[in-house]
Amino acid sequence: MYWYTLTPLDVLLFRDAKPFTPGERAWAGSTFPPNPHTIAGALSELVNRAKATKFTLKGPFLCYQETLYFPRPFNWVGKNQLVPASWLADNHRCRQAIYDRNYPVPLLLDKSQHSTETEAESEAESRLYISQDVVLKLLVGQPTEEKDWLCNAGENPKPWSVETRPHNAIEPGTRQVKDADGYFVENAVRLHSGWSLAIAVDAKTHEAIQEIGKLVTLRLGGEGHRAIFQRCPVLDQQWNNLQKISQANFEKGSNEKARSLAYLVTPGIFERQHDSNKVMCRAWPWEWDLAYPGNPKARRGHLVSVATDKPVPVSCRIRDQEDNSSIPAPQVFAAPAGSVYYLNQPQILFAEDSKAKQGKALDKAKRLQQLGYSELLWISFQSQSINTQAS
After folding, report:
1. What gap in Å lies between CA 347 and CA 299, rounded to an integer?
2. Could you tell me which of 145, 210, 275, 304 has the fewest CB atoms within 10 Å of its CB?
3. CA–CA gap between residue 300 and residue 225 (Å, rounded)
């Protein structure tokens, strides 16, 4: 894979998948960072479709001065990590907690190893994005520091600002703004100085881009705003290093059947069509069965617990090859980047399973993964980091 940065020349506009109707006091929803479908659409316009009809992407991620940044994992509260109740010592009082076994095991802070915060730490905001150096610490099992999770004084938790932009339409034949259907408001994103987006593309797409030039601009998002699209070889080594350690953690956990964490660094689309022909999405892969299901006859899997947040609506468009037009595709809901899955041992995704049944479902899962969705980094669970004494 070949890594590139996308540095905005102005603000960027990315509407979310929620429908809206321009009208009086109407707001258009926005999202940032953009989803992989948006990046694929921008690349489609940049390169010749005949040379790169399908893309294999990684990202998008944030980048600061040639360093990759990833969404903060949701299983960290401040500088303390959440733990599944079932992974505590047998004599721990929280092991007696009652919960709905149709869902994963609850997560909690183990007070026996919970560090006391100072007054300055309690007032500090948590970082929403962490550098690849911090992610590397998590992957290799090194202890993290306070500065890895908490912002410095005056530092913004997220590296962008939101600017509200009203849109007005003029009444035909007049200089007056339309009262209703011509007015709406949306939010624009302005990245802070030194920040950019980062993506990786496959070899075929890289060759097509290089034929255009080493430094090009492309349209990104709405209203025709542009970004500088530039090769960044430094990011290649950073990503390859993370991938190498992640794969080693996966293989070690599989061989030893050891507890592992799957860290979702891009939105995860996990959908399944049921017997009633209804397509449903949820926050964790359907192929990952619960380790402690409520039904004693249900198949036991390896998934213990999930740390996640509200779903991200994702919508794209389907191209009609006959008249070269496009129509809205069915909306799906993705698990947000930063979600973390606790498993008794690592397990592959449906799209990666060589034994999976061939068909439209598998093709779609593979296509979404090629676009950059559902990217996981594997972390070996450090049992020694948890105090096993009852609190």
Report:
1. 15
2. 275
3. 50
* CA distances in angstroms from 369 to 109, 242, 306, 338, 376, listed in the order given: 33, 18, 21, 17, 11
Max intra-chain CA distance, the chain: 79
CA distance 60 to 129: 13
Contact 344/302 with Cβ under 8 angstroms?
A: yes
**Residue 131: enclosing H or E segment and its boundaries?**
strand 129-131
User: What is the pLDDT averaged over residues 239-243?
Assistant: 97
Q: Whole-angstrom Cα distance, residue 233 to residue 333? A: 33
Which residues on neighbouring strands pair with residue 380, listed in sequence order?
260
d(CA 239, CA 312): 25
CA angle 361, 362, 365 (to 5 degrees): 90
- More confident of the two residues 355 and 235: 235
Which residue has 């998002």 as its token pair?
221
Helix (H, G, I), strand (E, B) or coil at 380: strand
Residue range 246-271: mean pLDDT, rounded: 96
Say how far apart CA 276 and CA 190 lie, in whole Å. Answer: 44
CA 76 vs. chain centroid, Å, equals 16
Q: Is 204 helix (H, G, I), strand (E, B) or coil?
A: helix
Which residues neighbour 203 within 8 Å (Cβ) at sequence distance 6 or greater? 2
The model's pLDDT over 305-354, given as tens digits with 9 standing for 90+, comes to 999 999 998 887 666 666 666 666 778 899 999 999 999 999 999 999 98
Residue 196, CA distances (Å) to 6, 7, 145, 166, 383 in order: 6, 5, 25, 25, 37
| CA distances to 76, 109, 124 from 385, in Å | 14, 12, 24
What is the Cα–Cα distance from 284 to 330, expressed in whole angstroms? Answer: 20
Rounded Cα distance between 132 and 377, Å, is: 12
Task: Give percent of the chain with pLDDT exceeding 90.
Answer: 53
Model confidence band, residue 390 (pLDDT cutoffs 50, 70, 90): very low
Q: Is the pLDDT score of 388 beyond 70? A: no
Peptide bond into 33 cis (omega under 30): yes
Task: Determine whether 384 is exposed, middle or buried from the number of CB atoms within 10 Å of its CB (0-12, 13-18, 19+).
Answer: exposed
Q: Are strands 260-264 and 340-343 parallel, antiparallel or unpaired?
A: antiparallel
By C-alpha distance, which of 202, 255, 228, 283 is closest to 380?
Answer: 255
